[in-house]
Amino acid sequence: MATPHNAAAKGDIAKTVLMPGDPLRAKFIAEHFLENAVCYNTVRGMYGYTGTYHGVPVSVQGSGMGMPSIGIYSYELFHEYDVDRILRIGTAGGVADHIHLRDVVLGQAACTDSNYAAQYHLAGTYAPIASFALLEQAYQTAGRLGIPVHVGNLLSTDVFYNEPSPLPQWAKMGVLATEMESAALYMNAAAAGKEALCIVTVSDCPLRGESTTAEERQTSFTDMMRIALETACA
Ligand SMILES: O=P(O)(O)O[C@H]1O[C@H](CO)[C@@H](O)[C@H]1O
Ligand SMILES: O=c1cc[nH]c(=O)[nH]1
Question: Could you say which residues bind phosphate here (predicted)?
Fold first, then answer.
C-alpha cells in the first residue's frame, strides 16, 4: 500500500535499496546502471526505481536532505516495504586533513549533533554504526574494483551552514567527513533490526575552501555507485 510519501505498492521495491540524497542521482543510477528500471515513485519528486543489476533486483530511492527526510523514507522502506538493507550513497564534506576531493569514505559509524535518538528513550548516548556485514562486503568490493576507500567515522549534522565551524573539533576526534543523514539511517536500521551502510564521496573540503560542481555531484561520483551496486549483488 502507498504511504503519504511513496506511491509504490508492496512488492514494487527490492530487498536492497540504494539511497542518494539527491533524487536526480537516483534517476541517473537507474538510467545508467540498472537493467529494466521501472519508476515506482515521483511523489514530491523523490524518484524511486526498481531494476536489476547483474540480474539481481535492486531499488534506488532518493532520501532528500537531512535526518527528518531520510528518517521518513528509510522507516517506510524498512517497515512498509519489507526492505532488508539500505546503502546510502551520498556526498560529504572532507573533515580530516588526509581526506581529499573525490575520496570515497565507508561510514563505519556516524556521530551526530541531532536529537534523533531521543525517540528511543535510552538512558545514555547511542552510537550509530554500520552493518559490519555490509561494511566488510563493501570494503572487499572496493578492493576488487581497485577503488581506494577510507573507513571511519562520519559526522551527521543538522546544520549545513554552521558558524563558527564546529568541524575542527570533530577533526580532532578523528571524524573523516561530514554529511546529514547517516546517523538517522543507522538508527532506523538498528531499531528495525535491518542493515545499513553509508558510502560517501567527498564533494568539498569546507576547511580548505575546495569544492566540486553541482553537475559532478549529481552524475559523476560513479565509484561509490559501483561499490554500492556490487555490494548489493554480492
Ligand atoms: O549528496 P547527498 O546524499 O544529498 O548528501 C549530502 O548533500 C546534502 C547537502 O548538500 C546533504 O544531504 C548531505 O548529506
Ligand atoms: O553535508 C554536507 C555535504 C557536503 N559537504 C558538506 O560540507 N556537508
Answer: 21, 25, 44, 88-91
Distance of CA 162 from the midpoint of ligand 2 (Å): 11
- Within a domain: residue 9? no
The strand pairing partners of 93, in sequence order, are 178, 204
User: Which structural domain range is residue 50 located in?
Assistant: 16-232
User: What is the number of other CB atoms lying within 10 angstroms of the CB of residue 19?
Assistant: 28
**Does 220 score more than 90 pLDDT?**
no
- Whether 11 maps to a domain, the answer reads no
Q: How many CA atoms lie within 13 A of 38 on its CB side?
A: 9
pTM: 0.97
Q: Which residues line ligand 2 (CB under 6 A)?
A: 91-93, 160, 178-180, 203-204, 206
Active-site residue among 12, 84, 158, 204? 204
Q: Per-residue pLDDT tens for 51-97? A: 999 999 999 999 999 999 999 999 999 999 999 999 999 999 999 99
Closest ligand (CA of 94): 2
Q: Is the ipTM of this complex over 0.90?
A: yes
